[in-house]
UniProtKB/TrEMBL annotation:
It comes from Paenibacillus allorhizoplanae. This is Sugar ABC transporter substrate-binding protein. PROSITE patterns: PROKAR_LIPOPROTEIN (PS51257). Gene3D superfamilies: Periplasmic binding protein-like II (3.40.190.10). The keyword Signal applies.
């Protein structure tokens, strides 16, 4: 690793110096950091191009953060950069970042963030430094190795607002033993899924055909794959589009599966409850994030750990179109006084060498080349790996409306599905009302 690290760090100083003058949409410009070494000096043997520099890194309490911490001494030794790390629970992290950025703080320099939850708000407020020039010009970085959908998640207004570190796709979980006993093939379409669910549904014996998130807001991310696979989306251009025939079909399919074939209490279920009852052996099929697989396969949590199968999300009218997103990314504070050193850290932390190491710890990265390496998949069940790779190729880069007011938008969408679950048969007026609510949110966001 030492040799390859010096190869890219040698050009990092000169490339990043040029890149830092590029201003993003609405971003407040700051004084460009002065070079710590003359051009080419970093290539000198044993040179430390950022000697004496200190950057602040804020992370979530997340397995990726635990995987990267033991590797930091190598980075500090090679660059001379001291990395001060703070970590917070997810909600605390968002609150801390918002407070500091609102006050114009130059710290933290680099931080973990959720691109689809707060990325658009952070970028519109000028808090995120665009990274396009950094990533495209960095030597040996191979930016094109990142999956297209993962980069799509971290892109705002055609600008790269962050670099992916954790990816996630929606997949189908199923009971191998139940399908084998009933002679049912693994469903490849939503029609086949519905038929299999009906056949295996046996509530008198506490066996339910299907479970997924039923709570109003949490369900939105999981119904998204149904939406895309029917050829619909939350928005089309600048217009809300959750009241189209394709959208209504998707919402009806998801809602009906939960209404007719899910365990009691599904209206109040998010992922912990859905996985919990699946792990108890009481459900045949579950759709949810691949990142949560251990809740079904860990013998300490699951009674059916050895009978869990994984499959690509079933296709609809438009084929199989699961979400394939960046759930966590690394971003640079636009007011950082250490932009070149900060980019050196981001480049290192998302390089092929380091992604391999963090992925081996079970953190699903965004680099295609690492998924193609046998040693890059050791942190995952062998049966799950091809499902992840296939989903990343066909997936959509968002799992919720891409707006600033995400919470309000999720509530508007979730209302439609919950009406289906409650037995509403005349769905068009419900969807029209929700669509208007989403459009109002989108229009309001334009003025923020």
């Amino acid at each position: 690793m030492k040799k390859s690290f010096k190869q890219w760090i040698g050009v990092s100083t000169t490339v990043v110096m040029a890149a830092t003058v590029v201003a993003g949409c609405g971003n407040t410009s700051t004084k460009t950091e002065q070079a710590t070494t003359a051009p080419g000096a970093a290539a000198t043997a044993n040179a430390k191009p950022f000697a004496g520099k200190t950057i602040s890194l804020v992370t979530a309490n997340h397995p990726w953060a635990e995987a990267i911490k033991p590797l930091l001494p190598d980075f500090e030794k090679e660059t001379g950069i001291k990395v001060n790390v703070e970590n917070f629970f997810e909600d605390q992290l968002t609150q801390k970042l918002t407070v500091q950025f609102t006050s114009g703080s130059a710290t933290p320099d680099v931080f973990m963030y959720r691109p689809l939850q707060e990325g658009k708000l952070f970028y519109k407020n000028g808090w995120l430094q665009p990274l396009d020039e950094y990533a495209q010009k960095a030597k040996d970085y191979d930016f094109n190795d990142f999956s297209k959908s993962a980069i799509g998640s971290t892109t705002v207004d055609s600008k790269l607002a962050g670099i992916p570190i954790i990816t996630e796709q929606e997949i189908l979980y199923y009971r191998k033993d139940l399908l084998q006993k009933a002679g049912i093939a693994v469903p490849k379409t939503l029609e086949e899924l519905t038929a299999a669910v009906k056949k295996l549904h046996d509530p008198k014996n506490e066996m339910y055909g299907f479970v997924a998130r039923g709570q109003r807001s949490p369900l939105v991310t999981q119904v998204s794959s149904f939406l895309y696979s029917e050829g619909a989306d939350f928005t089309t251009g600048e217009k809300a589009s959750i009241n189209t025939p394709e959208a209504l079909k998707a919402f009806t399919t998801y809602g009906t599966l939960l209404k007719d074939y899910a365990p009691p209490g599904v209206l109040n279920m998010s992922w912990p409850q859905a996985f919990g009852i699946f792990a108890q052996g009481k459900v045949a099929f579950l759709t949810d994030a691949n990142s949560l697989y251990q809740n079904a396969t860990d013998p300490a949590k699951s009674k059916i750990s050895d009978q869990v199968g994984f499959a690509v999300f079933p296709g609809g009218k438009a084929g199989s179109k699961p979400y394939s997103i960046t759930s966590w990314g690394l971003a640079m504070n636009s007011k950082s006084a250490n932009k070149d050193a900060t980019w050196a850290f981001i480049q290192w932390a998302t390089s092929k060498d380091i992604v391999l190491k963090t992925q081996q710890k079970g953190n699903p990265g965004a680099r295609a080349s690492i998924w193609d390496k046998p040693e890059g998949t050791t942190g995952f069940p062998a049966e799950l790996v091809p499902i992840i790779k296939e989903s990343a190729k066909t997936g959509i880069d968002h799992d919720r409306p891409t707006v600033i007011s995400v919470g309000e938008a999720r509530d508007a969408v979730g209302e439609i599905v919950q009406k289906v679950m409650s037995g509403e048969t005349n769905l068009q007026p419900v969807a029209d009302k929700a669509n208007q609510a989403l459009q109002t949110i989108m229009d309001k966001d334009k003025t923020r």
